[in-house]
Design brief:
This protein is of the alpha/beta class. Helix content is 58%, strand content 11%. Strand 4, helix 4 and strand 5 form a beta-alpha-beta unit.
């Protein structure tokens, strides 16, 4: 049985592109209605039932945030996925706190849309088998995402960790993950990894007789000079001086 979707976006071509992409995905989903703004969508939803709402954040008359807040007052049982651009991170966070299920970034890539919707359908299926109404997308969503990223970092060798792979691991846009990481941990992804690399290099300098180039490669630096400069910037001395100081 197909799930019904409501598309909400003030640009007709965006709605058309989304609808076309949804049809290409060949998922059990059907766009049952389209609205140009939150107010129009709200009026329609008061009289109709829908399983999922895909809504833009920036729209005239009633924007996506106001729409989501008003929608939560209706006590209806639909999920919401918001669509935003890169510089609207703070708005997406607000939306997540009001009960939004997930988010997508413009321009919406076909693969990202597919992953997002398959995840939603999978959750729907699991909740249905439990006989419960889904309750997702609250304040725990950003933190749980970061927890998964930290797990990826922990199990991945330092020389293989990349922001792109971390983002793919949690089905997220790399740029968006970078912003989320900074918001949740108060530290940039690249700085977090750099700290881990320097800590591991200190351990190797103290406990092994590996050459500098070998240590640099093990912790993820293909360029020895870049490794030495980074180490000195953070530790205040070169790797070789650090090793000698411990003898």
């Amino acid at each position: 049985m197909k799930k019904n979707i409501l598309l909400v976006d003030d640009e007709r071509w965006v709605r058309a592109a989304l609808k076309w992409t949804l049809n290409r995905l060949n998922l059990p989903l059907h766009v049952v209605h389209e609205s140009e703004n939150g107010l129009e969508a709200l009026d329609w939803i008061k009289q109709n039932d829908v399983d999922l709402v895909l809504t833009d954040i920036r729209m005239p008359i009633m924007d996506g945030l106001s729409f989501v807040k008003e929608l939560s007052q209706l006590k209806k049982e639909q999920d919401v996925i918001v669509i935003s651009v890169h510089d609207e991170f703070q708005f997406v966070q607000q939306a997540l706190r009001t009960g939004v299920t997930d988010y997508l970034l413009k321009p919406v890539e076909e693969n990202e849309l597919k992953v997002c919707l398959e995840k939603w359908l999978d959750n729907e299926s699991k909740e249905k088998s439990k006989g419960n109404i889904p309750c997702m997308g609250d304040e725990t969503l950003p933190s749980s995402t970061i927890e998964k990223v930290l797990q990826y970092i922990e199990k991945t060798p330092l020389d293989q960790i990349t922001l792109k792979d971390a983002a793919e691991n949690v089905h997220m846009n790399p740029s968006y993950l970078s912003q989320l990481f900074k918001q949740q941990l108060n530290k940039k992804f690249v700085d977090y990894i750099t700290d881990l690399r320097i800590e591991e290099s200190k351990r190797l300098l103290l406990l092994t007789t590996l050459r500098m180039s070998e240590i640099a490669e093990r912790v993820g630096y293909s360029d020895l000079a870049y490794f030495s400069n980074n180490f000195k910037r953070i530790m205040g001395c070169s790797p070789s001086a650090f090793r000698k100081s411990a003898i």
